[in-house]
Design a protein that fits this description.
Helix content is 47%, strand content 19%. By secondary structure, the protein is α/β, with parallel strands linked by helices. It has two domains: 134 residues, 3-Layer(aba) Sandwich (Rossmann fold), CATH 3.40.50; 260 residues, TIM Barrel (Alpha-Beta Barrel), CATH 3.20.20. The strands form three sheets. It has an eight-stranded mixed β-barrel, surrounded by six helices. Strands 2-1-3-6-7 form a five-stranded parallel sheet, with helices on both faces. Helix 11 crosses helix 12 and helix 14 crosses helix 15.
Amino acid sequence: MPDPSVSSSKPIRLLLVEDSFAVARELQTLLRGVEGDALVFEHVETLGQALKLLGRGRARARFDCLLVSLRLSDAEGLVAVRRLRTSEPDAAIVVLAAPDDRALALESLRLGAQDVLVNPWLRTADVAQDLQRLIRGAMDSRRSNASRPAEASTQGATADASVASSVFTRDEESAFDLRFQPWARTVDGSIHGIEVTLGSRAAQVSPRELLSAAESRGELDALSRWLLRRVAPLWIEWRRLGIAPPRLALNVAPSELHARNFAASRLALIDELGLRPRDLQIELAEDALIGAAVKAHGELQALRDAGVRVIADNVGRSQVALLALGRLPLDGVKLDIALIQSIRLQERASRAAVRGIVGFCEELGIQCCAVGVEVEPDATVCRELGVPYIQGYWLARPQTSKAMGEWLMRWLPPAPRATPEAPLASV
């Protein structure tokens, strides 16, 4: 089920830090095959050469992604990851690891790397597409989650707040991007739902940062209502065309649940917009959901009673948290992306953790979805471990509404209709 829309018009500037010319040639050949002219590829053999290239002078080179070996001649283990993260804070880092480097590779993720490529994968059948997805996924992850340097934090927060407020003024159409990403059944690839996230066109602001900025300005409720109003006509059109999956997923901040009559007001808006409660799924981060559970239990239950599904996101960091989730009114969980990343390194503990969560969900009769499934081996492992649903770049990248509609038209055969097909709306 490769994603047909992986390519991007924006060139990738990629720096490979690897002392093996054979590996360097193979990586460059593979990436050139799928990226073509959209790739600016540079290779250095040592950490010292990389740091010189990334120096802070006027001629400083900037890269979108760094591919870094854990076995450099002048920097064994995690030294290179630490130094390069400091030198190039905005770039994604993908670690190149040997099979016996699993422990170091896992630690590199905690130090700021976005993903790990295990060397034997360079010889799998679909490695070029897998490698492309992995690198672009790491870049998206870095843009969403990277911590900014201290001197830029104040500017970033101000920019975020400014961007967040613009949606409620005259620049409504140009302020935001909506992105849609499907999830599917693991066994047969049938599409089960689509998650919609909100991003800024005016600055590199992640959905989480944008929600946080809106929350700090007291505009979170208005922003959430705006998003639902933008998505509703599109979803209704998809449903008319017979290509709408069963569920549309929206992220919700815990503070929204604390608002007076949150469930009642959202259900009223859903009805006003012509949506059905059973069309919607709300997702909250595991830790935030547990923290809000005491005050929000009634709101969650009211939404579920009406037909809205409630999902805990980023699940699997703590067994204690998992037990707490078992006492909440939930319809499902999404696994923390770190579990999938560590399973790539054949970590037995992570495989056992996923099996345990799958069993937990089966016992409670709720859904379980693996997030961050970027390459075919990820999907294979999920099938082996019994994970019912998957979401990630291997299935499809986050896309605009127009691209998502076209993707669904290819993926889902439309139901018979009496009227001519109307053009897909674009958010």
